[in-house]
Amino acid sequence: MTTATSAKQHDSGIRLRAGLRTVLVYLLLLVIAGATVGPFLVMVSASLRPNFSYMTFPISLIPPDPGVDNYIRLFNQTAIGRWIFNSVFVATSVTLLQVTTCSLAGYAFSRGEFPGRDLIFWVFMGTLMVPSTVTIVPLFLILSRLGWVDTYAALIVPAATSIFGTFLLRQFFLTIPRDYDQAALIDGANLLQIYRMVVLPLAKPALATLATLTFLGEWNAFLYPLIVTTKSTMRILTVGLATMVVQEGGAGVQMAGATLTFMPTFLIFLFMQRYVVQGITLSGVKG
């Protein structure tokens, strides 16, 4: 056997092993994707079927006679229209407030020069170690004294800012060269103008990341809105659907409600995932 023949066989073996590894990787990814996406496909399929017909085996993802009867029952028998409005209003309001307050705080901690700046920042960061469930009871007592229970203020004001959001934007602002600030100061801009016209336009990926994560978090919130709301008209979508399980009992209607809850968050993340990845990546460049 010549040296050239041995080299060809060696290269063929390497290519074969590389091909097998690629096939195994793709098979593993398909299994993970199926396990992740499968339940959501079953949920959407079940929402288009008559009640309990999805429990037949084997499961068919494509309904034989799809219909929207479950969605019609959902809107006729529950206050889901009001719940959707509450969820959209609360999630949008909290998102706008957090983007504003966290960007201002992040700008102060990254660009400001004042005594104890770093100490105050790390004390704020230390509060992330406190579980949110620990503060629910004291927060509810405060809201009760203020008369805010069953109001939009109770759902919005306590979430108006975020330590994580402040940290995320502060880290991103640190990656923006200070030369831009100096050039703006020479042109006569003040600190607020630098924040509004220089820093914010350069921080769009981080702002989009914070907005996306905040909206998704508020849309899917459950425990806190459940505690501070008792009236059906003040419930958000997740809480309303949880109470609907007891009231209606129809599996198809429940799947329709779950689909309506899931689809907005899925579409938002689908369109914003590029900005989320970019914002989180760039925010960790400099500490």
Radius of gyration: 26 Å
Q: What does the overall shape look like?
A: flat
CATH class annotation of the largest domain: Mainly Alpha
Overall residue-averaged pLDDT value:
83
Domains (count): 2
The total strand number stands at: 0
Features:
287 residues; mainly alpha; MetI-like fold; 2 domains; 0% strand; flat
Describe this structure in words.
The chain has 287 residues and is an all-alpha fold. The protein folds into two domains: 3-67, no CATH class; 70-283, MetI-like fold (Orthogonal Bundle). The chain is 73% helix and 0% strand. The protein contains 13 helices and no strands. It has helices at 3-47, 69-77, 80-111, 117-126, 136-146, 152-156, 163-174, 179-186, 191-202, 204-219, 223-228, 237-247, 251-283. Helix 3 crosses helix 7 (163-174), helix 3 packs antiparallel against helix 10 and helix 3 packs antiparallel against helix 12. The protein is flat and about 70 Å long. The protein starts with a helix and ends with a helix. The mean pLDDT is 83.
Condensed summary:
This protein is mainly alpha-helical and 287 residues long. The chain has 13 helices and no strands.
